[in-house]
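User: what does the whole thing look like in 3D?
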Amino acid sequence: MRPTAVGTPVDRADARSKVTGTACYTVDVVLPDLAHAVVVQSTVPTGRIVRIDAAAAERAPGVLGVLSHANTPSLAEVPTFPQGPAGQRRPPLQDDTVNFDGEHLAVVVADTLHHAAQAAALIDVAYDREEAVTTLEAGDELPPSGIFGEAPDSVRGDPEAALARAEVRLDATYTTPTEHHHPLEPGATVAAWDGGRLTLYDSTQWVSGVRDAVAMTLGMATDQVRVVSPFVGGAFGSKAMVWPHVVLAALAARHVGRPVKLVLSRAQMFTSLGYRSPTVQRLSLGARQDGTLTAIVHAVTQQTSVFEEFVAGAGYISRSLYACPNVAVRHRLVRVNAPTPTVMRAPGEAVGSFALESALDELAAQSGVDPVALRLRNFAEDEPQEGLAWSSNALRECYQVGAERFGWERRTTEPRSMREGRHLVGWGMASATYGVHSEAAAARVRICADGRILVTSGTQDLGTGTYTTMVQVAADALGVPVERVTAALGDTDLPPAPHSGGSQTAASVGPAVWSAALDACSKVLALAEQGDSYAEILTRHGIEFVEGRGDARPGASASRFAMRSFGAHFAEVQVDPELGEVRLTRFCGVFGAGRILNPKTARSQMIGGIVGGTGMALTERTVTDRRLGRVVSPNLSGYAVPTHADIPWIDVCFIDEHDPHVNALGVKGIGEVAIVGVAAAIANAVHHATGRRIRDLPITPQTLL
Amino acid sequence: MTRTEITLSVNGCQHTLALDPRVTLLDALREVIGLTGAKKGCDRGECGTCTVLVDGRRVYACLTLAVMHDGATVTTVEGLADGTDLHPLQQAFISRDALQCGFCTPGQILSAIGLLAEGRATSEQEIREFMSGNLCRCGAYPNIVAAIRDVAGAQ
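Assistant: Here's the predicted 3D structure for the full assembly of 860 residues, as structure tokens:
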């Protein structure tokens, strides 16, 4: 490749449609004769439905139909990830049991949104309530059956003996709360039937997953379902799997014989698209006096629903980030009357790194070693769990460049030793890492006789820049300017691509686009001498267009190398000593993540991850009432995400890293490594500012006073 | 419910609407007039995705009833560009990559236009404070502030 577009800060390809309001999200889809559905949810955490009285709702103005377990056909279960695309395996409206507060119990369909909402308020449900387990602390711990195919527990070396012998020991428990993704576009589906064929417009990270899940649960052939999702108003994992409201929209449309739009309310978002499980993480570290790690024991307890299992591997980061001969990791689950949790930006690593990187900071303080020096001392030359060589690893450069850009050498060691006026100033840092993932993907590139290029793949753009990077890769493969290339995605009629999660889209779809473009190019060049333009060749031959196809799949390198992205975060906070308020005032993130296809959109994505991590550190927490088993204040006042005023200028830097092993483009993926370690860097900065070690997120003024 | 007839001038177009008085300005724009640029992210005045200009002032369209604005002039994101010429803030948002998923973008841009009209874009700190009613879950805040500063500086 002669890169002229790849690696340059090309403007986001879909930006114009987004700043002019023409980008059509699922919530904006309008079809002829469109009806509106509103979901009714349970108001008890467990029990049985004694009666659903829908008579008043059915008589209300404009109502076209009501669905509940009384009149919903039998639906097949769909396996959950990684065996299948379902976020929740249990299909909706199948029986009279209630398993959590906020479970879908009925759907009201009416001619207008207002009529549907008014009628939904008239549904009267009587319950026979049973005893509920409403918090993680209240239930019994069980070993999970597996974590995305990996064993939940592992031991290397002899951690207990190494802990007993350690010159420096640390034993601490870190907790993180339930967190919600809260993309600003709620979960939404528009369903339209045409005879036996179903078209779904859905806000999703996985169009083919939605197609497969809905076909499976309704007993249809997959080619009878088309899913369209050109724009997704944020996701962060909440739309990676397929949730019950999607099939409810399809059922509602079939029930009333009209296309139906179903949009979840913000309150319903707390129980409808999964969440990040709370964690209790006990971390024991053993080290030599100079800070060299000799033992890590990382034991994690998380929650799942009472009816199925989901667990993110929060402890796994402790196996691979540092060179340490003796490491034990353990995961346990507690079944709670709550929805099934799901993936959320860097599932596992985001919360696991809070514990590990906070503990490293505590070890640094105990052993009197600078936090950066401590991490350099424990740098893993090879991947420590499997013993494989790294495909590439720029972690040391990340520390060095980050420390220089941040001015780390000016940090005074003692807590409470830096001030700005009456505010305490603290500087903290943490490491970041996330695995490189990719799956098989396909793409098509069409070269038209008028010189236009169209590149397509059934992938998704969540605001992550997929449209833009597809254009860049195709432009470079064909040697044309980006202005000539248009991308289309988010449609199961296009060549298949995997779900947009695990930071894998660029690494999966990019090589497929590259291959498709080369295929198209070779087909045109086969027609003529070199030196002509594509348009001239096609015109001379009277051909309207030539189409190239490309497939890409993970290579054999995965078994020979360990592949991860790395990074280092440096945070400055100012703490008001009287009010306990923490302000993030400066942040620097440096990443080694392979080839960066577009430094402009990539920088935005890293900033976004750092903002998400700032929310984890300082504001985000879903509170559940222990007695009611219900989310308290299910809105964006009760769940505080960072605002403009919370976020300072953020310095982002990428290490120039060439990894020949990960894939044809050298892309490692960036979306998730950005958030890993951010909360720890901020908590470590709070410790440096105040001398207070906060092991329970978020760090609110109450925790500091 | 008795319907109330009102007239709204939206992006230069006159609309005469007979509305249930409980209908919010946001639902009137999205569901009745068919302009979907203003988004419904929370429907309770917490996210700012529905921000529009009413007689030049920025308001949350989800927190005000349409019938309260009889005769008003409303500007939504669809009314900002002059043909293919973008509003300076729209161009600045593209140049600074001040968006990712784009769902909050119409509200951010209209809020920023209101902010500039209020004379409250004199420093980064002021922009952050007075833009804090517009959430961006993708976290494009630093780039949004940069885009607003670019336009404020050019004025």
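In plain terms: Helices of chain B lie at 25-33, 88-95, 105-118, 124-130, 141-154. Chain B touches chain A through 60 residues (CB under 8 Å).
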